[in-house]
Amino acid sequence: MAVLLPAWEYEFVNMATENHLFAIAMQIVMINGGGGKTEQDNHEGVDSLPSQELKKLANGNSKIPGTLDDYRKLVVPIIEEYFSTGDVEFAASELRGLGSDQFHYYFVKKLISMAMDRHDKEKEMASILLSSLYADLLSSYTISEGYMMLLESTEDLTVDIPDATDVLAVFIARAIVDEILPPVFLTRARALLPEFSKGIQVLQVVQKSYLSAPHHAELVERKWGGSTHFTVEEAKRRIQNILREYIESGDIDEAFRCIRELSLPFFHHEVVKRALTFGMENISSQPLILKLLKEAAAGCLISPNQISKGFSRLAEGVDDLSLDIPSAKALFDKLVSTAISEGWLDASFGKSAAPDEEMQNTSAVKVKRFKEESGHIIHEYFLSDDVPELIRSLEELSAPEFNPIFLKKLVTLAMDRKSREKEMASVLLSSLRLELFSTEDIMKGFVMLLQSAEDTALDIVDAPSELALFLARAVIDEVLIPLNLDEISIKLRPNSSGSQTVQMARALLSARHSGERILRCWGGGTGWAVEDAKDKITKLLEEYNTGGDLGEACRCIRDLGMPFFNHEVVKKALVMAMEKQNDTSILALLQECFGEGLITINQMTKGFARVKEGLDDLILDIPNAQEKFGEYVELATERGWLLPTFASIP
């Protein structure tokens, strides 16, 4: 699925007469926050025939839909049944039975588009179903993807539904009021849609006609006149009243009866969230609140998943809660500790509930020692330009929890040096993202840099401009995706130096031919190694596909001198195998590289994982991509190319 997160590929063109525009883009801080338009890869030649060795996987018999087309056929009857019966629990059970979380964005789109062409009753039912499934089956991200697809197809919807613009605006406003879609979605969507599209008109109606209106929440909730079900807002009010009455009376049986009568098992996370909030607002009520939640969990009234979701939702808003309850963070941590110790909250929650505080709670001595050691590693890298050696040194530190600190240290040191070191730092980020660092590590590192941007500017005068270039370069190098800039912005103070730096990075990315200019911003140098390597890999695979010289192909891969980048060889080889008819030859090359130790099992696994992540895009151009990739995975598993952890990669 690639709606909000397209496979960004940049077209590099020689622009000798327009270099002055790049300098102008550096001045744009508060204008044009959207990313630039890009093109996706085009894949041709889908008539490839599987080899005899690969055909043995052909007769898999799974009930889980393997393709989006299969999912589409199965999901429509679920929606039709729901509109007929109004049974939320049955609809949730059927959707869960499909077991295809990666396609649930389409369920959101289809549910809304079908409701748009029906009566107000079905529109209200659709909104209730989304709110009921939120945090259990549908994440905010999945819901955002579904709504983004709807915005992109508004023109088509208008052909069959004349008032589609207004109806879709109400659905989006309702999702924001119901707290299943973040308000920042409007900003993100606006940046991704064409300027004069109907999708932009929908967003304008949402903002001006609904969310800006007096008492907008009540207006939106009552827009369709309700239904046989009470609305989400009414459910929240009932939950609040149930908890207040329980705190006053202490009658736990009555509270349980009222919660059961709500008949909203998929909305019990709201009970948990509001109960915990009451307990933080009124310390004297905590024993009653903890007793209620503990016994509700023990009696299976509230499922472990709903308990965890409730804690997670409160964790997300604890910073805002601190404005009214100064000790909110400490109180929340205590509640988490109590729930885990009493056994009604999964112990793993404590490890992930507050990721931003993990480093703050770690020994200061250990952090200081890590900074010193990482500083030595970075200085040595700037002298040697040896990426594999740096990666080995970083692995030896065995401190992955400090990866964001390493990124901050790397970029800070590079900003105070010459263009060569800045280029080397960007190249290293590309390698680390593929070897050691997660996207979350990269984002946290940049957030730390941006939060201290004002202090950094005291020592490095042009720090904001340099940091904007590092951010933009990270997007061009696919270390980050454009949407990550929005996620980073949310964690920064409005109008701060860091926030303005993100805006500057967006402006750089939105300029014409931004890819080439940003890649050359520090004069090229070692940074072109990654882009050159991609071109060389493509050429050597094409030459091998034509000539079939196995030894020459292996020699060319070895001559690249970038063993940490061999996952790119695997990725491009697998895509070429899907496109061409002689996939046996391509797979023979991978076998030879693996047998010689030229491509390690780690790099092989990363290459397969990258193809797996992009399958939804490949299917658009290679209809049988899913089937062929499954055949390749079985072959690779049999021959020991893949790590056991590959099966758990989503």
From TrEMBL:
<keyword id="KW-0963">Cytoplasm</keyword>
<dbReference type="GO" id="GO:0045892">
    <property type="term" value="P:negative regulation of DNA-templated transcription"/>
</dbReference>
<dbReference type="GO" id="GO:0006417">
    <property type="term" value="P:regulation of translation"/>
</dbReference>
<feature type="domain" description="MI">
    <location>
        <begin position="532"/>
        <end position="650"/>
    </location>
</feature>
<keyword id="KW-0539">Nucleus</keyword>
<feature type="domain" description="MI">
    <location>
        <begin position="369"/>
        <end position="490"/>
    </location>
</feature>
<dbReference type="InterPro" id="IPR003891">
    <property type="entry name" value="Initiation_fac_eIF4g_MI"/>
</dbReference>
<dbReference type="InterPro" id="IPR039778">
    <property type="entry name" value="PDCD4"/>
</dbReference>
<feature type="domain" description="MI">
    <location>
        <begin position="234"/>
        <end position="355"/>
    </location>
</feature>
<comment type="similarity">
    <text>Belongs to the PDCD4 family.</text>
</comment>
<dbReference type="InterPro" id="IPR016024">
    <property type="entry name" value="ARM-type_fold"/>
</dbReference>
<protein>
    <recommendedName>
        <fullName>MI domain-containing protein</fullName>
    </recommendedName>
</protein>
<feature type="domain" description="MI">
    <location>
        <begin position="70"/>
        <end position="191"/>
    </location>
</feature>
<keyword id="KW-0677">Repeat</keyword>
<keyword id="KW-0810">Translation regulation</keyword>
<dbReference type="Pfam" id="PF02847">
    <property type="entry name" value="MA3"/>
</dbReference>
<dbReference type="GO" id="GO:0005737">
    <property type="term" value="C:cytoplasm"/>
</dbReference>
